[in-house]
Amino acid sequence: MIVMEAKHNICSILDMICDIRLDFRLTGLLNIFKQHVEGDGGTRLSSDFGIDNVADIIDELMPALQLEEEGHFVPIVQDLVLYEHTALASSASSLLIRHYSQLPELVKGLSQVQILISQKNVKTYQVVQEKLESLRSWKSLSSAEATHILQDLSALCYSGAKHTPKPEHQRILHNLGAHEILIEILHMKPVLVTSKGKLMMEFIAVCFNFLREFCRNNPENQMALFPYVSISISLSLSNSPSTDETQALGCVHVLPDA
Hints:
By secondary structure, the chain is mainly alpha-helical. The protein has 2 domains: 2-111; 119-253, Alpha Horseshoe (Leucine-rich Repeat Variant), CATH 1.25.10.30. It has 13 helices and 4 strands. The protein has helices spanning 2-35, 51-61, 73-81, 86-100, 102-111, 119-135, 143-156, 167-175, 178-187, 201-215, 219-225, 229-238, 243-253, and strands at residues 37-38, 44-45, 158-159, 164-165. Strands 1-2 form a two-stranded antiparallel ribbon. Strand 1 (37-38) and strand 2 form a beta hairpin. Helix 1 packs parallel to helix 4, helix 3 (73-81) packs antiparallel against helix 4 (86-100) and helix 6 crosses helix 8 (167-175).
């Protein structure tokens, strides 16, 4: 059993190396991208930089940090998949999948990169990051503090009295995992009680209000929330659903046509 655990830990280390490899490749692409931007504030690519250049760069980056240089990696990992140790077999399977899907993994990672061109967006990113760090420790916050943080984050998602969505801010919140923190909080609703034993319904409503603004007219954020719709429905069924809960669910369900 100790040997199996050791092999499992080695697979975990290799998986971490795969993460580092992906970060290295993405950083390489972004550095080259930076070298070819021009204009005020670097807002457009130079005319001599096209899709063929990107393909050539990816070809050059792919050999970096390969695990298969000696030709032994795949046979060894395939052997580990056959072990009856569940965790080890699962880790080995994940490694094989990552090994054979390096290019799609890189393309997906690149599509999720958000380049903060303006100083204003950089500042917004820093503010959101700070507030989310506080929100991650929501159990140690008072309901008033947590509510205030969520109201600030909700306000970042729109502008004006008509709540016009701000996609660049919605994406910053998405990339920093704001919705995942909110889902965790909603999932723990039974422990969100006041000293008098009453559910913190106002705080819960603020959570749903954030999710509504987070996914309003934003298909990517809607898809990110869709796997958690069952949690929202179960919460709504346990009480009379608030307007915010109903509208949040509506924003997730109603995806705009492609």
